[in-house]
Amino acid sequence: MAAKLFLASSNPGKLNEFRVLAANAGLEVELDLLRGFDSVPAFEENAPTFAENSLGKALHYSYLTKEAVIADDSGLVVPSLDGRPGVQSARYAGPDATNSQRIEKLLGEMQGKAGQERRAHFVCTLSVVWQDRALAVITARVDGEILVSQRGSGGFGYDPVFFFPPLNKTFAELTAEEKNRHSHRGKAFRRLLSVLPDML
Q: How far apart are the first and last CA of the chain?
């Protein structure tokens, strides 16, 4: 019998991404958006770490179902900027900022930085909660560097300026298959799937 997970999100794109990852891993996992997600007050992701935000979100929405709930928190970390944008990645340029505005702010802060100072990594933390009980908190990262200008038309967020040296491409230049294989979210979800059958 397939394990069932409800994603604490109203984003069908994110759901589809997780479904593709599960299918590629060859595991029977039934994934769906959490019913009633938009009917309750949003969880405020104001903790200082990705893990706390991810687990807090999963716990916050877990009462909506008797099935397991999965939640993620992810973002871009630039050590030379003291870790910014970090957990504020989605709100880095303001709560209503566009992807372009976030990238513009990032590139502005990166002006004058070179070499090791342009190193960065994406982080994704996934948490699974079942009936108010935390089953797993898993974190993965992918390392790269910030370019001085955007490249590529795919992806979202900071992908156009995040250069991934092993493929000599930005994340916005990767195919969907390449991104699923190498991304922080892909890595975290595959790790989760490897232990999920023993938890549910």
A: 11
pLDDT tens per residue across span 153-186: 988 899 999 999 999 999 999 998 899 899 999 9
- The CB density around residue 51, as the number of other CB atoms within 10 Å, is 18
Is 32 catalytic? The answer is no
Structure tokens of 89? 């990645």
- Catalytically annotated residue among 32, 38, 72, 73: 73
**Which residues does residue 134 pair with via DSSP β-bridges, in sequence order?**
129
Report the candidate in 158, 118, 134, 123 with the shortest Cα–Cα distance to residue 49.
123
Q: What is the pLDDT of residue 1?
A: 57
| CA–CA distance, 121 with 63 (Å, rounded to integer) | 33
Strands, DSSP E only, in the chain? 3-7, 29-33, 68-77, 119-130, 133-146, 162-164, 169-170
Contacts of 19 (CB under 8 A, 6+ apart): 31
The model carries a pTM of: 0.91
What three-state secondary structure class fits 121?
strand
Which residue ranges form the domains of the chain, and what is each CATH number? 3-198 (3.90.950.10)
